[in-house]
Specification:
- The radius of gyration is 20 Å and the shape is globular.
- The protein is built from twelve helices and ten strands.
- Helix 3 (109-115) packs across helix 12 (303-314), helix 5 (160-170) runs parallel beside helix 7 (210-223) and helix 5 packs antiparallel against helix 9.
- It has a five-stranded mixed beta sheet with strand order 3-2-1-4-5, sandwiched between helices. Strands 8-7-6-9-10 form a five-stranded mixed beta sheet, with helices on both faces.
- 48% of the residues are buried.
- Strand 6 and strand 7 (138-145) form a beta hairpin.
- The protein is an alpha/beta fold.
- Bound molecules: 5'-O-[(R)-(carboxyoxy)(hydroxy)phosphoryl]adenosine and zinc ion (ZN).
C-alpha cells in the first residue's frame, strides 16, 4: 500500500510517500520569507504553498519512481493550522484525488505529530502519555489507542514553541526562534536569571507560558539592548530552562498520578537538544519508558501525515469530498 501525504498547515510545504510504513520520500520546503517579518504572515504562507505544491508532488513521485496511479490514497492535513495554508493543501489534494480516482484521507495535524513516533519506533505500543509541544499546541494527551485520545493537560495561553519564538524576537535573534535559542543556550548559564515558573489552577496538569514571555520582555526593556546582547547566551539558557522545567514538572506529575509507564514526546519543541536530554534523564530516574521522534519528524513533515493516513486507510476511514479545513478530532487546546 502506498500513501501520498501532504502537509501545508503552517510555513512548511511537505510531501511524502510511504509504502506500508517505510518512507520512500519526505520532502520539506521551509518558507524563509517570513524571517524578515519576525513571524509567520499567513497570507504569504498560503501563497507560497500554492506556488510550490504541484512541483513538490511531481518531484516526490519522480524521486520514488512512481506515478499517481501507483498511489492508493492521498492523505492531507485537515487541521488545525492556518486556515488559508490548510485550504491550499486540502483543495489541491481534493482535486488530485478526484481526477485520479483515489480516496482522500483528512488527517489531524496534532495526531500526525504524535504518530510520527512510529516512523522511528515501529514497535512502540499503546497506551502511552504524550507530551505534544509545538508552535501551536502544548498538550498532555492520554493515548489509549490509535484515534482514542483524551486531553489531560493543555496550555491556557501560549504554546511552548510560541514562547521560544517570542523570546527570540525580543532578543532580536530571528525566526523561527526555537532552534536559535537552543543553539545559543548551549553556551550559556541556565542559572543566570530566575525566570518565573508559572502555576495554573490545575497546576499539575495545565501549562502557562505567557508570563515568561512578559518577564523577558520587561527585563530586556529595563536593561537595554547592549546588556541583552552581552548576556544573550545566558538569557537563552535561563529562559529555555524555565520552559523545559515547566513541561517536565507537569508531565511527571501527571505520569505519577495516572500511573503512566510510557511517555512519548512529539512536536517541533521536542527537537530541542536540552529538552531531549533533560527528559531522557528524568525518565531514567522515574522508571518511565521514553520515546521521541528523530529531529526531522519532530518539526512539520508530511511523513507523519502519510503514516496516519496509512493507519486510517487500513481501517477504511476515508473522507468525503466536502470536508473542510477544520480538525477532525478533539485534539486541540480549545476543546
Ligand atoms: O511542530 P512544529 O514544526 O509546527 C507546529 O505544528 O507548530 O513546531 C514549530 C515550533 C516553533 O515554535 C519552533 O520555534 C519550535 O517548534 N522549535 C524548537 C526547536 N526547533 C523547532 N523549539 C525549541 N528548540 C528547538 N530546537
Ligand atoms: Zn506541527
Amino acid at each position: 500500500m502506498k500513501i501520498l501525504g501532504v502537509e501545508t498547515s503552517c510555513d512548511e510545504t511537505s510531501v511524502a510517500i510511504l509504502a506500508e510504513h517505510s518512507v520512500l520520500v519526505n520532502l520539506v520546503s521551509s518558507q524563509s520569507l517570513h524571517q524578515q517579518y519576525g513571524g509567520i504572515v499567513p497570507e504569504y504562507a498560503s501563497r507560497e504553498h500554492l506556488r510550490i505544491i504541484q512541483n513538490m508532488i511531481t518531484e516526490a513521485l519522480a524521486k520514488s519512481g512512481l506515478t499517481i496511479q501507483d498511489i492508493d490514497a492521498i492523505a492531507v492535513t485537515q487541521g488545525p493550522g492556518l486556515m488559508g495554508a490548510l485550504l491550499v493543501g486540502l483543495s489541491f489534494c481534493k482535486g488530485l484525488a478526484y481526477v485520479s480516482g483515489k480516496p482522500l484521507i483528512g488527517v489531524n495535524h496534532v495526531e500526525g505529530h504524535i504518530m510520527a513516533n512510529f516512523l522511528d519506533h515501529p514497535n512502540l505500543k499503546f497506551p502511552f502519555l504524550s507530551l505534544l509541544a509545538s508552535g501551536g499546541h502544548t498538550l498532555l494527551v492520554n493515548v489509549q489507542n490509535f484515534q482514542d485520545y483524551e486531553i489531560w493537560g493543555r496550555s491556557l495561553d501560549d504554546a511552548a514553541g510560541e514562547a521560544f519564538d517570542k523570546a527570540a524576537r525580543i532578543l532580536q535573534l530571528g525566526f523561527p526562534g526555537g532552534p536559535l535559542v537552543d543553539k545559543l543556550a548551549a553556551t550559556g548559564n541556565s542559572e543566570f536569571f530566575p525566570f518565573p515558573r508559572a502555576k495554573t489552577k490545575r497546576e499539575n496538569q495545565d501549562f502557562s507560558f505567557s508570563g515568561l514571555k512578559t518577564a523577558i520582555l520587561y527585563l530586556a526593556r529595563q536593561k537595554g539592548n547592549d546588556w541583552v546582547q552581552e548576556h544573550v547566551a545566558d538569557l537563552c539558557a535561563s529562559y529555555q530552562e524555565a520552559i523545559i522545567e515547566m513541561l517536565l514538572t507537569n508531565t511527571l506529575n501527571v505520569a505519577r498520578q495516572r500511573n503512566v509507564y510510557r511517555l512519548v514526546l512529539a512536536g517541533g519543541v521536542v527537537a530541542n537538544s536540552r529538552l531531549r536530554s533533560v527528559f531522557q534523564n528524568a525518565a531514567l530516574r522515574e522508571g518511565l519508558e521514553i520515546y521521541f521522534p528523530s529531529l526531522k519528524y519532530c518539526t512539520d513533515n508530511a511523513a507523519m501525515i502519510a503514516y496516519t493516513g496509512t493507519e486510517l486507510f487500513k481501517r477504511h476511514q476515508f473522507s468525503s469530498w466536502d470536508i473542510s479545513a477544520i480538525p477532525n478530532l478533539p485534539l486541540t487546546s480549545d476543546n
